[in-house]
Amino acid sequence: MQKKDKEKVFGGEWSEAQLREFLVAESYDGSDADYIAVIRAYRHMVPGTFADFIKLFAAEGHNLDAKNADGVTLLETIESHAQGKEYAEIIRAAA
Question: In which domain, by residue range, is 80 found?
Fold first, then answer.
């Protein structure tokens, strides 16, 4: 019998070390690395955790106006999602 994969946990308390793991990303398609980092965090975090991440992201000097390879900003991407409004407000508040 195969072992069940560990379930992903999106909520709960995240340590600063866990948040920092999302600060570093590599781009393989010409998108800004900061764009990749925030989109990855957005996909894995509940709004409260995402807010903590964005505070750290901005404090570390990362670019909240980063764009993907098509020139679309983080805010434009997240706003285009039906469930993205709260996340977009977090980015606006930090900008």
Answer: 30-94
Q: How many domains does the chain have?
A: 1
Summarize the chain as % helix, strand, coil (round to 5): 50, 0, 50
Summarised one tens digit per residue, pLDDT across range 20-34 is: 999 999 999 999 999
48-68 per-position pLDDT tens digit? 999 999 999 999 999 999 999
Is the Cβ–Cβ distance between 39 and 70 less than 8 Å? Answer: no
Distance CA 51, CA 57 (A): 10
CB atoms within 10 A of CB 31: 19
The model's pTM: 0.85
Contact 23, 56 (CB under 8 A): yes
| Sign of the four-CA dihedral 95, 61, 39, 16 | negative
